[in-house]
Amino acid sequence: MKAALTPVVLAALLLVAGCGGGGGGSAASSTRPSVEGLQTDQAKGAWIFHPAGTPKRLIIFFHGQGDETEATPANHRDWIDHLVKKGAVVVYPRYEQVYSKAVLDPAVAGIRKASDRLELKGLPVLALGYSRGAALAVEYAAVAKREQVPVPDVVESVNPVPYGETARIVNLKPLQPRTILALIVSEKDPLASDGTALLLQRLRDSGFPGGQIELNIARSHGSFTADHLAPLSSSAAARAAYWAPTDALIKQLKG
Fold first, then answer.
1. Element counts in the chain: helices (H) and strands (E)
2. CA distances from 87 to 17, 154, 206 (A)
3. CA 116 from chain center: how many Å?
4. How far apart are CA 154 and CA 134, in angstroms?
5. What pLDDT, on the 0 to 100 scale, is given for residue 27?
6. Are 189 and 160 in contact, with CB atoms under 8 Å apart?
7. What 8-state DSSP symbol labels residue 229?
8. Shortest CA distance to 169 belongs to which of 196, 205, 127?
9. Fold topology of 30-250
10. Is the pLDDT of residue 197 over 90?
11. pTM of the full predicted structure?
């Protein structure tokens, strides 16, 4: 696992990366990638990663449960930058500062803040989540239409646990049956194996069509161990195990 960064160091790194403090009007298309922060010191905040030029798609990236670093983009920045280079505008909602049971509403609030600043009409939407965020991405997709925030066409859950929101059980029945739901499970991650089985049971109980579900297994080889923390790496093996299936999934998005 990556070493934890102090809040001061983390804030400096994000500032150097171009992270703003929020405020102002909708950002215009730029010739170079940029980062915008909206109340990122709070749950209900969000980061927006803008691509160079006009966005081709929206990706909402749900972080995992962890410390103050995991609640920021720091652990996932390389993957986010890769997605941005491929033309995505990436929204990274901060749904907690420290552990919280109630995280779906703060995530929705952060996504709403970000989407209100973006021109998203006609853009396909991918909800991508890791660990707790993997389940939260599914739960978000189930409430997005009701909450009038961007509705995912595709959801990808990486090393999921069974529940994102734990203050209540989120009803998955409103999940659109045409949604593509892909899972990536690390073979050396018993937490994700159990989490996947329970999340699939939730989907089955909700009546979600099994034909819309895709499963990928991230396998260990050589010095690479496909465990729970492997998606935080940007090694060649990790890119092949996690980024490549995501890139393939993106090709299914119609914009």
1. 7, 8
2. 18, 17, 34
3. 18
4. 12
5. 44
6. no
7. T
8. 205
9. Rossmann fold (3.40.50)
10. yes
11. 0.88
C-beta of residue 130 within 8 angstroms of C-beta of residue 64: yes
- Cα distance between residue 128 and residue 135, in whole Å: 10
Per DSSP (E only), the strands in 4-44 are 34-38
Mean pLDDT of 183-199: 97
- The answer on pLDDT for 2 being more than 90 is no
| Alpha carbon 120 to its chain's center | 17
Q: How many CB atoms are closer than 10 A to CB 218?
A: 25
Residue carrying the six token digits 């496909």: 226
Coil, helix or strand for 181? strand
Q: CB–CB of 122/146 below 8 Å?
A: no
Q: List all residues 6 or more positions away from 202 whose beta carbon is below 8 Å from its beta carbon.
A: 162, 172
* Backbone conformation region of residue 122, classed left if phi is above 0, alpha if psi is from -120 to 50, else beta: left
Give the pLDDT score at 241: 98
Structure tokens at 160: 């999921």
Of 130, 16, 113, 13, the residue nearest 71 (C-alpha): 130
Domain map of the chain by residue range?
A: 30-250
Structure tokens of 54? 């006009």
The pLDDT of residue 48 is above 60 = yes
What phi, psi does 217 have (nearest 5°)?
-105, 125
Q: Is the pLDDT of residue 26 over 60?
A: no
Residue 140 in contact with residue 174, Cβ under 8 Å? no
Give the three-state DSSP class for 171.
coil
- Dihedral (CA of 22, 25, 29, 30) sign: negative
Helix (H, G, I), strand (E, B) or coil at 105: helix
What is the DSSP pairing of strand 125-130 with strand 57-62? parallel
- Give the 3-state secondary structure of residue 91: strand
| CA angle 28–30–36, rounded 5-degree value | 70
